[in-house]
Amino acid sequence: MPITELFLGAFLQVLFDRLASPELLNFARREGIDMRLKKWEKMLESLKEVLDDAEDRQLTGHLGVKSWLEDLRNLAYDIEDLLDEFVTESAESKSKAESNTSKAHSLLSNCCFRLSPREFMLNHKMRSKMEEMDAKLLEIVTQKDSLSLRENNEKRSTNHLQDKPIPTTHLIEGCFVGREDKKMEILKLLTEEEDDRTTTNIRVIPIVGMAGLGKTALAQQVFNDARVTSYFDVKAWTCVSDDFVMLAITKSILQKIDCTLSSEDKDLDWLQDKLKQNLSGRKFLVVLDDVWNENYGNWTILLKPFQSGAKGSKIIVTTRNSHVAEIAGARPFTLKELSLEACVTLFAFHALGVKNFDHHPYLEALGLKIVEKCKGLPLAVKTLAGLLRTKVGPPNGKLY
């Protein structure tokens, strides 16, 4: 199988992650194109479902399927480029809006000159591109049907299970790069002594960023740091995910803090009371990983037992949603994409087991090309590197 086809399914997953990013979604809603992007996502998902069958048939020499896969790959790259333009335009519009401090100028601009000639042409150009993408997607879906490509029914149940969030643990990643500065900033916040004027015993530290940026990996690094372990009396880690079940979250934290305590068949009132007793007067660190809840009432109820902790206690929250940080009333640590250099190191580690291409120079150009397509998303880098790892074998390290 050609190496470019091998990565197509994983690259489509990168596109899905980018289509779900808050920054892009906000821009799409503002421009009235959110429903169109949602339609693209559904069409791409239907195409991803038949990739296994398409790649199997390509191996038998089916030229029509080979051409279809090439068209799909090229379209995926074109969509990615267009999403980049959306993000750039969103950033420029935000910057321009912030610079318009004059109310009169703002009113005049909105009422009389809604779009400058440049903005009008850019708007027209983008919409023309979107119509072009619509036509290409429809054509590829039609070709899929004419080629009688089948969904992978045997693996469908497995795929649905994989769509569900995978629970995380506090154990650290094998390779951590590109976030050392953020790690040191958070470590400083975690271990610095609280001002006596502080009105609360708890400080919340939100780590915010889109899917795949390494929020959990960063939280794992600080959670396991020796300075943190020696500073806090007790630590607990729990994965919240999209189902904010207060009883389950409270039980998970309580079990981490007191593993001897039996909490089966206990209600929330009992669990919170026991958690309050266990935290009373103790300096604690709790990590709530992958929080989606935007309900302030739920948040305040969850935090009730934590009020008994000693001054200096901290809660780290990782989330894709900036509104969660606002509800927590804390300054977020917002993660951006990793640098290309850091991504190359991460890719080499997960593809080859080392942090560079010194012993595999013929793979470096390919690795760089793949990494560039990941757009700084460490999860995408690791996913694609894992696929390459299965194609490189000892002792000569050549692609099979």
Question: Can you walk me through this structure?
Answer:
With about 400 residues, the protein is an alpha/beta fold. The protein folds into 3 domains: about 5-165, no CATH class; about 180-335, Rossmann fold (3-Layer(aba) Sandwich); about 340-400, no CATH class. The protein contains 19 helices and 7 strands. It has helices at about 5, 10-20, 20-30, 35-50, 50-60, 65-100, 105-110, 115-145, 155-165, 180-190, 215-225, 225-230, 245-255, 270-280, 295-305, 320-330, 340-350, 360-375, 380-390, and strands spanning about 200-210, 235-240, 285-290, 315-320, 335, 390-395, 400. The strands form 2 sheets. The protein has a 5-stranded parallel β-sheet with strand order 2-3-4-1-5, sandwiched between helices. Strands 6-7 form a two-stranded antiparallel ribbon. Helix 4 packs parallel to helix 8 (about 115-145), helix 5 (about 50-60) crosses helix 6 (about 65-100) and helix 13 (about 245-255) runs parallel beside helix 14 (about 270-280).
Structure at a glance:
With 400 residues, this protein is an alpha/beta fold. The protein is built from 19 helices and 7 strands.
